[in-house]
Structure formats: C-alpha cells, structure tokens
Amino acid sequence: MSFTLHGIAVSSGIAIGRAHLVSHTSLEVAHYVLPDHLVQEEISRFDAALETTRQELAALRAVRPQQAAAEFDAFLDLHLMILGDEHISSAAREMIAREHCNAEWALKVQMDELVTHFEAFEDAYLSERKTDVVQVVERVLKTLSGHVSHAPPAEEDGTSMILVAHDVSPADLIQLKPHQFTAILTDLGGATSHTAIIARGLNTPCVVGLHRARQLVRENDALIVDGEQGVVIVNPDKQILAEYKLRQDQWELERKKLKGLKTKRAITLEGTRIELHANIEMPGDLQEVRDNAAAGVGLFRSEFLFLNRDELPDEEEQFEAYRTVAEGMHGLPVTIRTFDLGADKQIKGVQRVASNPALGLRAIRLCLAEPQLFRTQLRALLRASHYGNVKILVPMLSGAAEINQTLQAIAAAQQSLDNEGIPFNREIPVGGMIEIPSAALALGAFTRKLDFVSIGTNDLIQYVLAIDRTDEEVAHLYDPLHPAVLQLLAHVIGGANKAGIPVSVCGEMAGEVAYTRLLLGLGLRQFSMHPAQLFSVKQRILTTSLTEAVTLTHKILRADDPMKIRELLDRLNA
Ligand code: PEP
Ligand code: MG
C-alpha cells in the first residue's frame, strides 16, 4: 500500500531506496513459561542470537572510524568479552533449561545480576562498565525480537538504504556515518537538533519529526525521501517513482553546476567581499571544507570528536586532533569551540541528570564547573595554536562574570604551558558565542572583553522563543523571522560592527539561502555553515545588491505582522 508521511525537512536532496529500520529496544521484556517440548528450541534460539550478535560486533570492526580506531577496538573487545561472560551465556542457557522461561527473560535476569556485580566495584571505571553490559544485552534482545540492529545494511544488489528510526542520538549518527545511508528519517527531532545538523553535515537528505514513521514503515519498504519538502512516500507507484527520479537527476545537475563557483570570490554586486566559512564536527570533514573552498573553519564543534566514548581523552589526544585541523587548513583561520557538552550531547563519564538539560549545566557552565576538564582542553587548544591560525570560541556565555572566569582559565592554562616551556600563540583570539538572550542584550561586555563574537542562532532562537529545538511538537513555532529574533540579530550585528570586532553567524540560519540577503542587510559580512551549503550561499551573494538588501531589511525590521514579514522577505529574495 502506498502512503505519504510529512515531517520537517532538515537536509535537502532526493533519495530513493529501501527502508532499514533501526530500533532502540526497551529492556522491559515479557516473561512466560514454555511447554516442555519447546525448551530445547528456545535454547537454540538463544544460542543463535548470541552467535548473530557476535558476528555483528565482529563486522563492526571493518567499519570503525579511522580517527578512533584504538578506542573502537577496545570497545568491541570489551563487548565481545561481555557477550562471552558466563552470566550472559551459560547461566542464561541453564536458566531456560531449569525454569522453562523465555530467552529474553533469562537474559534480563542474568544481566541484572551482572550489573549488580559491576555496581559494587569501588573503582569508577569498572562500575561504569555496567552500561556496556546493558548495551550488549540490548543487542542480543534486538536479535531475539527479530529487529534489525545497527549492523551495516546489505547493499549487495546496489540498493540504496534509508535509515528509519524513532530517534537517533547525535552520537549514534556519528557512529553510523561510515555506513552511508542515502537518507535519514526519524520520528522525533526538530530542524536545528544536533541530529539534524549531523545529517546535513553528511549531505544526506533527512526528514525528522515524522511522528510514526518507525511504526508505519516496514523493513525493505520502497521509499522516496524529499529532503526539501519534508515528504516521504512509502511504496510509491511507478508514475511517482519516475517523476522523482527525474527530480533527483535535476537536483544533482544543479549541484554539479554550483561546483563551477569554486574559484569565484564571494562578492556582492557592489563588490563587497563576504567571508564564507565552514562548520565541521570531525577532522575528517576537512576535505569537504577544501572542496567547497571555504575561507576558514568558522565553527569546529569539538565535542563531537569524543561523543562515542565513556570519558574525555587526555591532553595529548586532544592536541593531536586540534593540530590536525589547524595544520590541515594551511594558515586559514580555524575557530575551535570549547566543549559544548550537556543537553543532547552527553559523554557518559560526565553525564548528569538534569530536569531541564537545555537550561542546565551545559557548555561553558559545565567547563567552569569541571576545571580539570576545561584546563586539559585549553592546554591542548593553546598547544595546537602554535601549528596554525587557531581561534578559541566559547559557547553559551551569559555575561561578564562567565567571560572573566573563562579568560582567567585561559590565562592559567597559558601560564602552565609557559612554566613548562611549551610554545603557543600568545595573541590567540578568544571569542564568545551569542546564543543566550542575555548575551545579546548585554553585548557590551562581549565586545569590550573578547576579540570576536559568533551568533549561534540555533540556540538563540530556542531561548528567545522558549522552544526546545529537539522537540518536534513545538518545531512549528521555531521561527527565525520572529520580530524578537530579528531585533536581537540587528542589535548584535550592528553593535559588534560599531565596536569594530568581527561578528559572524554560525547557526543554521547562515546556510539557508532564504536568509542570506536578510543577514547581509543586517550588516553581516561573515557566515559559517555546512560545507555543502557554501556554493548556494555564494551564488545568492553574487546576485545581491547590498543597497537594496539594506532598504528592504529595514522595512522587515519595522514590521511585526508575520504575513507582512514573509511578503517583504519574498521581495528581498526575488
Ligand atoms: C547554535 O546554537 O546556533 C550553534 C551554532 O551551536 P550548536 O548548534 O552546536 O548548539
Ligand atoms: Mg549552540
């Protein structure tokens, strides 16, 4: 049966392929007693699930991310070891034979015992391993329930696979990166959730907020994903399929044409130069940054380097990662953001339970509360500054007090390197993200104390409009054109320009061509976005008259009716 689902379009492009379902198994399992004649069969089912899981884990080794090969191997070895532990294998098998219970129940009971063992360890590392036990058991449960797991999809016949999940965390998505799904669909999530941002970084069409896709779509269903309109067509008929194949070809042709802009400079019709930088999550993204001729890295979300692990890496490992990026840009600016952990990006070792994580101990707040963690990162960043044009960007600053504390922490890290005779750039620029309304309103502290500012519109809009950016139920209220948002943008861009310090926008707004002229009209001259968006934005800039943009933008700023604002924006983009 053919049907259509509507969600939020977050990463454009058209994909045609087959559904691959990914599920998060709940550990609440049923308990039932089997008749005698089915017990042996149940034991065989259990053994087969263990074997399948073992093979899946072994297969993961072949697709492990290069930059974290050692950690990945250690994680796989540990999970294979847990799988072979007698609690998980023999004890569960004996329990099925003795009590005639179902395999899921035996596994769950044995898991609980093993977890209790681990919890009793005084050593924090060993006690934390209980999470690994749960993850391994989840994997076996998925296999038992017939669900397809995170194993790479089969592509022997060349069919493109489309990932369908209820939700995918940013960390999971990074882990799935090598598997090359041609599109990503999730029930939850908003347009600027970090999952959506990663999907965009992968240049993979993505629709989120589909509500019940995971439930309605079946494994191997034929799918068309329109990442522009947020539409998913399940089991389309031949005519629709042919129509979308045509649109897919046209879309790819457009992208090829845009590549012709690689050597063109981004200048407006009047000849004003605009700087286009790239946002990255991994050193591996650098190739794309170069392919799209970015003038620098405007935002390196450093926390993504380390999301799939239990604890943050030591100074040496961080230094190597930052140096790779700094050197890889050959003297062009590389703006590295200090860890923005917390909210939807958690490292297990520093995970906290907050009643409202977006308003909790996140980003710079977490770093200031964990001085050792912050000092390690700062030392690594400063050391990397000796090898390239590194700038430090601090997320979620709310005002002068946090700026002062941050600058003191940087000075202390510099002093410690000096004491050890380790070189670093003494003039390293330090900037602050403007993503909390208080920062935008109290901009003076930022322009006086810092070297540059970068506006994080994703969070700024979230906090100004009180809309959780990860919650699809309020996604329709997320509005970059809300007069309050526009006034704040005008205030920050105008204020920074007046104070003579560089200002950029590095939130998703910067990469959307619909807002390019508006931001130019507000006085913005530096944008940072996903590398894949650079050429479209450049094309828009090349056809922009700044004078006209300023006139219409001022009209937009004076309007407060949403219809009127839309109409003026359409005129600006005509
Ligand atoms: C932002 O908030 O706009 C931003 C760029 O940071 P992030 O999306 O990583 O929170
Ligand atoms: Mg942010």
Report on the architecture of this protein.
The structure is a single chain. The protein is α/β, with parallel strands linked by helices. 47% of the residues lie in helices and 13% in strands. The chain folds into 3 domains: 3-25 and 150-243, Glucose Oxidase, domain 1 (3-Layer(bba) Sandwich), CATH 3.50.30; 36-145, Orthogonal Bundle (Enzyme I, Chain A, domain 2); 271-544, Phosphoenolpyruvate-binding domains (TIM Barrel), CATH 3.20.20. The chain has 23 helices and 16 strands. An 8-stranded mixed β-sheet has the order 1-8-7-3-4-5-6-2. The protein has an 8-stranded parallel β-sheet with strand order 15-14-13-12-11-10-9-16. Helix 1 (39-60) runs antiparallel to helix 3 (87-99). The longest helix has 22 residues, at 39-60. The model is unreliable at 147-156 (pLDDT under 50). The site of magnesium ion (MG) has 5 residues, from helix 18.
Helix content: 40-55%
Q: Provide the CATH topology of the largest domain.
A: TIM Barrel
Count of distinct strands = 16
Give the low-pLDDT segments: 147-156
Q: What portion of the residues fall into strands of 2 or more residues?
A: 5-15%
- Widest sheet, order of strands: 1-8-7-3-4-5-6-2
Mean pLDDT: 89
Indicate how many domains the architecture comprises. 3
Structural class, please? alpha/beta
In terms of quaternary structure, the protein is single chain
Q: Treating each run of at least 4 consecutive H or I residues as one helix, how many helices?
A: 23
| Distinct bound molecules | phosphoenolpyruvate, magnesium ion
Can you name the CATH architecture of the largest domain?
A: Alpha-Beta Barrel
Terminal residue distance: 40 Å
